[in-house]
Amino acid sequence: MRILAFENGTIRVGVAVSDELGMVARPLEFILAAMVMRSAGGLEYVRCGSSH
To answer: What's 28's DSSP letter?
Structure first.
């Protein structure tokens, strides 16, 4: 099972995914923290960039 992880920062929110064993994670992209909006259903965002 893969795990999706978020790292909250003041400038960016990092997004990473684990390998199938859930042992090693690799970065996918980042979201500018200013673009993250909280709503009743959870977090919503507009894709802003990529870490690659």
So the answer is: E
CB 3 within 8 Å of CB 10: no
Distance CA 36, CA 34 (A): 6
Residue 49 resides in a domain: no
Q: Count of domains in the chain?
A: 1
Phi then psi for residue 33, to 5 deg, are -60, -30
Range of the domain at 26: 4-44
Single-letter amino acid, residue 7:
E
Instruction: Using DSSP bridges, classify how beta strands 42-44 and 37-39 pair: parallel, antiparallel or unpaired.
Output: antiparallel
Could you tell me the two tokens for 25? 């994670």
**pLDDT, tens digit (0-9, with 9 covering 90-100), for 3-38:** 998 888 888 889 999 999 999 999 998 888 777 666
